[in-house]
Design brief:
The structure holds two protein chains of two kinds. Helix content of chain A is about 25%, strand content about 15%. By secondary structure, chain A is an alpha/beta fold. Chain A has a five-stranded mixed beta sheet with strand order 2-1-4-8-7, with helices on both faces. In chain A, helix 1 crosses helix 3. The longest helix of chain A is centred in the C-terminal third of the chain and has 19 residues. The radius of gyration of chain A is 15 Å and the shape is globular. The two termini of chain A are about 30 Å apart. Chain B is of the alpha/beta class. Chain B contains 19 helices and 16 strands. In chain B, the strands form five sheets. In chain B, strands 2-1-3-4-5 form a five-stranded parallel beta sheet, sandwiched between helices. A five-stranded parallel beta sheet of chain B has the order 7-10-13-6-14, sandwiched between helices. In chain B, strands 8-9 form a two-stranded antiparallel sheet. In chain B, a hairpin with an 8-residue loop joins strand 11 and strand 12. The two termini of chain B are about 45 Å apart. Classes of the chains: A alpha/beta, B alpha/beta. The interface between A and B is medium-sized, with 19 and 20 residues.
Chain lengths: ~200, ~450
Amino acid sequence: MMDSPAHGAPRTWREIHLAPVAQLDEGTLERLALELSKRSALPCRAVPPPLAGELPRVPNRPQLDADRLLVSLEPLAEVDAPLVGITAVDIAVPIFAYVFGRARLGGRAVVISLARLDPEHYGLPRDPGLVARRAAAEILHELGHAAGLAHCEDPACLMRFAASVEAADLRGATFCADCAARLPHGLVRSTAGAPQG
Amino acid sequence: MSPDTPKSPPASILVVDDEPIVLQSLGDWFRQDGYLVDTAANAKEALRIAAERPHDIALLDIKMPGIDGLELQERLVKEVPDLTIIVMTAYASIESAVRALKAGAYDYITKPFDPDELSHLVRRAAEHRSLRSENERLKEQLASVAGPSPLVGVSAAMRHVQDLIDAVAVSDATVLVRGESGTGKELVARAVHARSPRRFGPLVVVNCGALPEGVLESELFGHEKGAFTGAQFRHKGKFELADGGTVFLDEIGTVTPRVQVELLRVLEEKKVTRLGGTVPIRTDFRVVAATNMDLEAAVREGRFRDDLYWRLNVFTIDLPPLRDRAGDIPALAEHFLQRFTLAMNRPPMKLSPAALDTLLSHSWPGNVRELQNAIERAVVMGKPPTIEVADLPLRIGEAESRPGPMSLEELERAHIRRVLDGSDWNISQAAKVLGIDRGTLYAKIRRYGFERVPTA
């Protein structure tokens, strides 16, 4: 998270663009688009890789620099369609060992990594469906920031702060009423709070 | 804040690091997690900010140009002893982190931070800090309830007092308790607090008459380090400690004009500025004040501010002297007998009929306190299971039960002795009761060779 909260009425978003950033196969991207469509009333469309060439890395670490990725993605996003950069590579910022995702309050782009949402990262069996559900929740959380929302104290709200994948799993699958009221129209379906399968 | 459902304010964090990106990242991160955050790029700035605003937790980078994190820690510990310090370090400087821990740091964390670890560490530190504050508050509360003594009495006068306490306790109104020395004004304050919605908050007692002006100011309002000679540490004042509870200002009539001005400001604004400080601190307290003085006369004579008088005189409870409620003496005597036999591990004791008659025939210028002292002494002197007249302090018998022919000087000697003991040797109070000045009283004490006799 960076910068100060955006003010004013919720923005209008036409659709959500999902873009592969690094090491992301088409099948995963499609699965994510499908999962996100279950929760969001906005059309979720896969777009071609927006960034070419060497991607920014955190010095002396094998991770992509989330903040610098975000800076690169922001100008490529359309005004009414947030751009979600998705990578399978671990992301971080210099002061933190890792982050799950990154967004700027009131920004147009967000970036998320699947690396630490994957149970295999923790030595657990492969589960592409779980990764997709976690990724969809993380995308909505970061889009909440992009829409101007800060973290929420409601333990059942998707905007609740979570520093671990367990904490992210424990928080709710949708936004509390206060946060939902400040989101762009259609970002979440009214039935999005149903338990995850 | 509702004392019944206390909600802790968010913890405040001071982050000190010479790298701007670290300050920005951590600042944003903590703010998003609901903390209040200040950032400082060097030790000098950190010390300035720490002096301006209170913080619960400080995160200090060890490696900084100029004053490094360890030296900064040393200085912060001196200036803000209750600050919880976490040091931030790179793997290469673990030894420095260990030094920091030995110097009292709460914990350390290595860069780059694991978000989960940092989140848990800071949450734990905030809880630790909150528990320490709670401990401080409970100690204050414990001190306020130590040696509890209920208001004893079934007389019409005391029933009226109980009714008044019940009526006012539930409100947040300021209460002024009036009555002669020894009538139990502090017990009324405790009862008001105990029956109020603030009962789970602290009751902080300040005896305004027992402290010189400068000390009283510091006790009431607190002070910053260096506010005056000897102020080596920051000190929280009683109003700050009473946050969520009640302040009992005993002997309010003795407060000097300068402190009266400060008191009035604090009572009106509910904000305290520590001596030597610049930042007002908001605190939520209720005031119960007490006096045995004629405050109206003090106002007329210009010794007591009329605006402060009106601020305090919202709801008055007048405590009757013991001589006006002699019917309560047996119950009070029984109450003190039980209390002192228990405290001194003595067998149960009872008053003989003659001893009770003696107590009933006494005029009790020192009121309930004098009766309490008499019973305490009798429990020491008496042979279980009965307390006889001879076990009571002689002065009770001398002056009233067995007057006999006495010269004027003998009468004066006995009377002064009785008033002194009745006021627990409070010279000012005794002089006031006797209608003489303190110097004259001291001269008479020397003349009659009086010495204070311990009662237990």
